[in-house]
Amino acid sequence: TTEIYTLSLHDALPIWRVLVHYRDLRRREEQAQIESAIQAALNSWRGDVARSQGIGRDEVLSNQLLAEVARFAPTTEVELSVIASSLGENTHKHGAAIVAVVRQTMDELTG
Questions:
Q1: Which pTM was predicted?
Q2: For residues 86 and 66, what is the distance between their CA atoms, to the nearest angstrom?
Q3: 47-96, pLDDT tens digit by residue?
Q4: How far is CA 31 from the centre of its chain?
């Protein structure tokens, strides 16, 4: 005996909404974890550089730029320069190191 079930789309919509909502929440949570990890890594790097050069942490990397770098996770100096220029900042001095920290953090998270 074969049983045939029919599921109307009208009945399925609430289920799909839950699944899509769950996927979106999960994506946001993953993004928040990535941002947090990049921010922590950049804070540590910034503190080390500031101590070694005897300058303030903001002189190495401003809080505002650090937050934007963590948010967008640039993996090239070009991407970083676009973010920095939108804030009126320059990253030519530490750009390569900032991108290296972002890349290393991303590798650690995905590796």
A1: 0.77
A2: 13
A3: 999 999 999 999 999 999 999 999 999 999 999 999 999 999 999 999 99
A4: 6
